[in-house]
Amino acid sequence: MRPRLEARIGASRTMVYATPVLAVALTMACGSVLFAALGHHPPAVLYAFFIQPLSSVYDLAELTVKATPLVLCAIGLSFGFRANVWNIGAEGQLTLGAIAGGGIALWAGDDAAAWVLPAMIVAGLLGGAAWAAIPAFLKTRFNANEILTSLMLTYVAILLLSYLVHGPWKDPDGFSFPQSRMFADSVLLPLLTMGTRLHLGAPITLFLALGAWWVMARMFIGFQIKVVGLTPAAAGLAGFSVNRLIWITLLTGGALAGLAGLFEVAGPIGQLQPSISPGYGFTAIIVAFLGRLHPVGILLSGLFIALSYLGGETVQIELGLPLAVSGVFQGMLLFFLLAADVLVRYRIRWRRAAMVQEAG
Amino acid sequence: MKTTIIKRTAIWLGAAIAATALSAAMPGMAQAEPLKVGFVYVGPVGDHGWTYRHDVGRKAIDKAFGDKVKTTLVESVKEGADAERVIRQLAASGHKLIFTTSFGFMNPTLKVAKSFPDVRFEHATGYKQSANVATYGARFYEGRHIAGLIAGKMTKSNIIGYIGSFPIPEVVRGINAFTLALRQVNPKATVKVVWVNTWYDPGKEGAAAKALIDQGADVILQHTDSPAAVQAAQDRGVWAVGQASDMSHFGPKSHLTAIVDVWDGYYVSRARAVLDGTWKAGDTWGGLKQGMVVMAPYNTAIPTDVRAMAQKAQADIIAGAVHPFAGPIRDQMGMEKVSAGKTLDDGALLSMNWYVQGVQGNLPK
């Protein structure tokens, strides 16, 4: 007997939404075995991992702060992924947004006018979009693969930031260390509640997620994006311009990633430095797929992935578990999600070895 | 002289342990709750390199104070928005002494310190202090001076390869201290620098080492954390000097010595100060003398006279008779930066952003 995968005729809609939950449950079950093997009490670890980071207003604010850039980047990416435009370079677009907006903050100096922060937000959007425009141009003009161009531009963006903070934008009073001056308080994003780091970027992100849902569900452009993604030939017959959609999805993705970068430097970081993102642009790809490329799903998956990072820190502090454990945990989650996806769309058929031999 | 260092460290540690025993014996000094000490690391602990050496220091606290302390570590914390959250979480969960062991944690450490005035913070390699934030670092350049003397005697091609991480004062200072000592014993030798823009990337570091060897370098220095350069040197039959920890087991033939970070004594003394109630903020910049920088055992292939020279230099630095940045010092253009009889002060060392004569290439600005 040998197993074979056979496509199901129409996957169950319920299962499509149930699989992320199932994957989380399986991860917790297998994680418990892992924790027990490491000599820890599984309920205590699961509590420290998933409940403790949610146990106060401050903790919830931190979770939101961590999820904001992930959700923003993932929503931007989801437009492209739905249209088969594979922007892998959100990290670079995020960096350019931070550079463009942060540059204005540095230029404005200590007594910045009220319009500077809005200008920084616009610059963040434009900076990210401009960086995404390069792969869009190369794709539509020369048919260059956007996966490669957007990914490679990420490294260019990070080196550009590195050049700026080591060189022209270096803090003159900073002993030649690679960092800019601190931004003036007046150009930092306003905090929503005292005593936390929850900033204006979070509600803007929520608003944009709802907007994205409206665009995909109710607007003609959303329909075009879905058609191009599902059946490019039909889109061609209907007269939709594929090139136009490549431009729109890449620019949107770039702009939202750029905004995420600006929110980081004008929010919790407050200056430009060589590393402003621990890979949000890449993690956002996982967030986007975990959320089924749906804005509401992305909100939930962004919060969940953010929780997995916070939980990873909490188990280190409270229980002394190594960081590698949270890496294994995240890996298991993705494994189960992908495995469940396969089983929703395919069924396993057991074929007799003899038949396989005949066939092969 | 090596033994002197070990002796000094031992005396320091011994004193620390004795003081602990003493305070434990005194009634009223014993604390019911153990002192919680937190550590924030920029990388994984692993078994060599920067973070590993800090973790060895953490374990020294455990060893010195037993159940009077409880240490906690958080590894691979990125220098961005995450750092503040982790530091705050440590402070909020009862840690009264927190070590943040990377330069990029400076501003987050100060921010958290403001909201937790009763918690003591120790930030490695930074320059901003406050009432409850102390800074500390090590004069690794003293070790670079000794490495320079040895390299000057060991090189045949008179070309030294130097793998730099980022062009920050710390690294530039190391290159300059090395080059000055190198040319003191071998005026014909020059230093080629390759910047890899990373603290840890075995692939890049190995490639940089091979490129430098291809250009004729027969001694490889590194200011990065992985043992890739030591391994590449071993494969190609040239010399290498390890960084942060003793890397001799990665290249027993190539490994001349290593400049080893030793935080144990400092960490134990700071934890003791908190336990005693004598902790004060300030800046500590210790070197060979304080045992914060130690040379790894010299390769047996180093001739006896060279070894003696290195040991004498070490003793002279400890005694204060030799300063690695004593004049005359000329920059790359041949301009005199420090005249004879003068030495660079700490301020100039901490913000160093120019190359001395003998270093090839331009410093990235």
List the helices and strands and how they pair.
The complex is a heterodimer of chains A (360) and B (365).
Chain A: E1 2-7, H1 13-37, H2 42-51, H3 57-82, H4 90-108, H5 116-142, H6 146-166, H7 201-218, H8 220-230, H9 232-237, H10 242-269, H11 280-290, H12 295-319, H13 323-345, E2 346-351, H14 353-359
Antiparallel strand pairs in A: 1-2
Helix pairs in contact in A: 1-2, 1-13, 2-12, 3-7, 3-8, 3-10, 3-11, 3-12, 4-5, 4-6, 4-10, 4-11, 5-6, 5-10, 7-8, 7-12, 11-12, 12-13
Chain B: H1 2-25, E1 35-40, H2 50-65, E2 69-74, H3 81-92, E3 95-100, H4 106-115, E4 120-124, E5 133-138, H5 140-154, E6 159-164, H6 169-185, E7 190-195, H7 202-214, E8 219-222, H8 228-236, E9 239-244, E10 255-261, H9 264-276, E11 283-286, E12 293-295, H10 304-319, E13 329-330, E14 336-338, H11 346-350, E15 359-360
Overview in brief:
The complex is a heterodimer of chains A (360) and B (365). Chain A has 14 helices and two strands, in the order βαααααααααααααβα. By secondary structure, chain A is mainly α.
User: What strand order characterises the main sheet of chain A?
Assistant: 1-2
Q: What's the overall average pLDDT of chain B, rounded?
A: 91
CATH superfamily of the largest domain in chain B: Response regulator
Radius of gyration of chain A: 23 Å
Brief descriptors of the model:
heterodimer; A: mainly alpha; two-stranded antiparallel sheet; 14 helices; B: 365 residues; alpha/beta; Rossmann fold; 2 domains; 7-stranded mixed beta sheet; 11 helices; 20% strand
